[in-house]
Structures are given as structure tokens and as C-alpha cells.
Amino acid sequence: MSRIFINYRRQDSEGYVGRLYDHLTQHLEKDLIFLDVEIKPGADFVEAIESAVQSCDVFLLVIGPSWLNAADEQGRRRIDLENDFVRLEIATALKHNKVIIPVLVGRGQIPSANDLPEDIRAFVRRNAVELSHNRFAYDAGRLVEAIKTMMPARGAKGRVAPDVLSEKQARIKSVRDDLVNATNSPLYQVRVNNRYFPVIGEGSADANIMFIGEAPGKTEAETGKPFCGPSGEVLDDMLRSINLKREDVFVTNLLLDRPPEKREPTPEELAFYMPFVDRLIDIIQPGVIVALGRFAMDYLLRKLDAPEKGGTITKLHGKLIKAKLPYGDIHLVPLYHPAVTLYNPSQKETLRQDFQKLKLFI
Ligand code: URA
Question: Which strand ranges, in their side-by-side order, compose the sheet holding 202-203?
């Protein structure tokens, strides 16, 4: 999902595009930004361009001072040539009705429609942004903000109508009821003997971002709320850093009851609770699932059959992993578990930086 395609002419705006690319990669995931279409030897370049442009959501059409009149060795305007890449890319973006933002650099201007081949004329009506030399960072920042609002990432709230929301809430409650009555749960006796609550999860049934941790701790089991102890304070701090509150997201765990003695989940416990967690995912249908810690990451990579499965959290933390669920495309984002920062404070900065990536989906 959500890719940005940068269309530009080297001889016209290479320097500006390099600067823009650096700026975009500081604020957006690098993998989402498409700069030069890679066309393998022997490949059909029209098809290669078609597939690259088709998979993007926002098409940046960079226009510098010589964009219109850039010519080939024989003095022909490149834009008039049928196999000109810039033209082919723009025509494809128009054909697929992509969001096109003309980006004016180096005093480039929107050409007049009459000066353009027919198949790309329509772009001149698209509202342009200017990246001026003196205010480049400021202008580029505004462009990033505009791009974010155009990405089809679904907001944290208001994705569904009120009646659908109530139905989702009722279905979450039925997950809870089923768990409360599941006397065959490997942790049922621990719950009853300690007068613990099951911890189903908390937040919006309509959330686009769903966090999945490992298992409730003591405080969580005593209150029935996920992440309300020291790890929860870290989680709240991270959410605040990207202007989110608990009610904007949904937070749950792989195990929905507390295992005794702070130990790791056993395979038997994981197998028992997974169908409940899967039901929660199916009900909430998040566009982004954030795995907090390696247990959640391992489970989700396997569930999604992602090529990254078997990878370590050290390698995969902060990555946006694209995957499919029956209800649609999602991103899996593995992050370090907040508890890690409690005994290794230097990891807090890493977690904070990784959290910034979630801004893309807000
Ligand atoms: N750790 C978790 O994984 N989940 C909680 O709810 C609390 C701590």
C-alpha cells in the first residue's frame, strides 16, 4: 500500500529530486518511495512502467526549468516522443487516476495544456506545490504533510458507521464471554485461583492500528486492562509521541490470561489463545498490526506467511512488512517490547524512532 512515485527528468531536475528524496526518506519509509523504475534487460519497458506506476498511491511530477523543452540529440522535444519515460509515466498515472501532485522546482512552471501531447494534458489542472530554493525544507515538509493526507491509510477512527461499530463491540464482548467460560484454558485455574480477570484488550473496535503484546502481567490481570503497569507507561509515552491515545488504537496480547511467575508463553498456551486473538483481528480489521516483542512478531509472521518469518526482532524491528489478510492488505510492524526499555533504557530511543513510522498510518 501507500507508495510514492517520483517522476522527473534527469537533465531538468536531478539535483532537486535528490534533495527531495532525502527529505522524504527522513519522514517516510524508504521502501515506499519509488525513484527510478528498474527495467531489467529484455523487459518490456511500457509494462515495467505501467506496473510501477499502478502500484503507487501518490505520483509526484517534478517540473524544473527545462522540463518542457528538454530535447534529445536531434533537437526533438523529449516530451513529444512516444517512448519518453517521463511522458509514459504521466500518461499511466492519469490513466489509473492516481493522485498527481506537480512539484515545481528551480522556477519550473506548469506548462500550458496546448504545449503538451494530448495523453498528458490533463495533469495541468492538478494543484501544484512549489519547492523554492530558500525555503526548501519548509516547503518539502508541507509536501510530506500533504502526501500523508492523501495516502489511503485509514485513520484511527471513524472508519465504519455507528451500527457497524456497535456490532464490532458486541463481537468483542462475545470473544470475552467465550474466554471467560473456557474452562479448558491452560491458564483457567491460575485465573480463578488468583481472582484474576482475563485481559481481552482495550481501545477502539474501529482502530486502524492494533498492538499485540505478549501476555498480561500481574497488574493487568488484577484489573483486566492490558499494559497498565510499567510497560504500559512506556507504551503510553510512545503513543503520545505520535499524538495517539489508547482510545485511538486497540491494544491486546497474544495470551489473554496471565501466565504464572512472569514466565514466557508455552506452545500449549499460544495454541489455545491464538484463535481468540485471530477473532479479535477479524473483528477489528486493522490496517496495521504492531507486534510488541518477538513472541507476537513470530506468531504474526507465521500467520501471514511472510517471507520474513524466522527473522529476529533485532533485524526486523521498525520494518513495515506488507501482507494480506482475508479482509484486505495490511502492514505488520514489529517493534521491541516496551518492557525491554525498562531494563535497557538505551532501547527507548530506538522504540521512539520506530514509533514514528506509525505516523504514516494516522
Ligand atoms: N506486557 C505485555 O506483553 N502485555 C501487557 O499487557 C503488559 C505487559
Answer: 202-203, 250-253, 209-213, 288-292, 328-335, 321-325
